């Protein structure tokens, strides 16, 4: 190779390495910020049956509170459930660390209610999960249904690839597999949004949930959809969005 060609090749590889570094930095450049979003639920053939409002608030430098409230609309008003959930969590260099998780169906029955606490010193999870008392060992990386949503955003903002999370159940913990499927631009109430599509599947479950995570908006999902086999069971579509300076 002639000297000029060698120099060009060296410059090419140097520029490629620099671009790769910038891309990696950009992938992890965002940080977790407070947000409020709402989603309309399209359930089976019943149309838009509910609206879910999710809110992330910062309590101090490391501690956050994430809440979800769902109210029925249309035919959904025929059902009694008014689900509410709350997860208090820490965001550390090692990832998301839940501190407590509460959930209620919003009915007179408490059979589906959850009220658990995570003791990271004693490494135990204790409380009540859907009518059953639990006192189980706490493993690093364990999450719940709500804190797992924040954990996915945090890991993606840090430029990491997510492959699995462990989630608490009333009988222990269950492995959830995550797979990055594709990238696509989808239409939303805030305009066209480029998104990374992740699929989540609980171990031994026939269902799969897909999240369209918006890289330009802190990887907050713009759409969520659950399928059983080839059949779509429900789809959540973004209806409103506020983040950080908008709050």
How does this model look, in words?
The chain is mainly beta and 247 residues long. The protein has one domain: YmcC-like fold. Helices cover 15% and strands 54% of the residues. The chain has a 15-stranded mixed β-sheet with strand order 8-7-6-5-4-3-2-1-15-14-13-12-11-10-9. The model is unreliable at 1-28 (pLDDT under 50).
From the structure above, extract its key features.
2 helices, 15-stranded mixed beta sheet, globular, mainly beta, disordered N terminus, 247 residues, YmcC-like fold
Q: Characterize the largest beta sheet: strand count, sense, and whether it forms a barrel.
A: 15 strands, mixed
**CATH C-level label:** Mainly Beta
Rg for CA atoms: 21 Å
Question: Might you state the CATH topology name?
Answer: YmcC-like fold
Helix-strand string: HEEEEEEEEEHEEEEEE
Alpha-beta content class: mainly beta
Distance between the first and last residues' Cα: 59 Å
Helical fraction: 10-25%
Gist of the model:
By secondary structure, the chain is mostly beta strands.
What secondary-structure arrangement, pairings included, does this model have?
Layout: H1 3-27, E1 35-43, E2 48-58, E3 63-72, E4 84-92, E5 95-104, E6 114-119, E7 124-129, E8 132-137, E9 142-143, H2 147-157, E10 164-169, E11 172-188, E12 191-202, E13 207-214, E14 220-228, E15 231-243
Parallel strand pairs: 9-10
Antiparallel strand pairs: 1-2, 1-15, 2-3, 3-4, 4-5, 5-6, 6-7, 7-8, 10-11, 11-12, 12-13, 13-14, 14-15
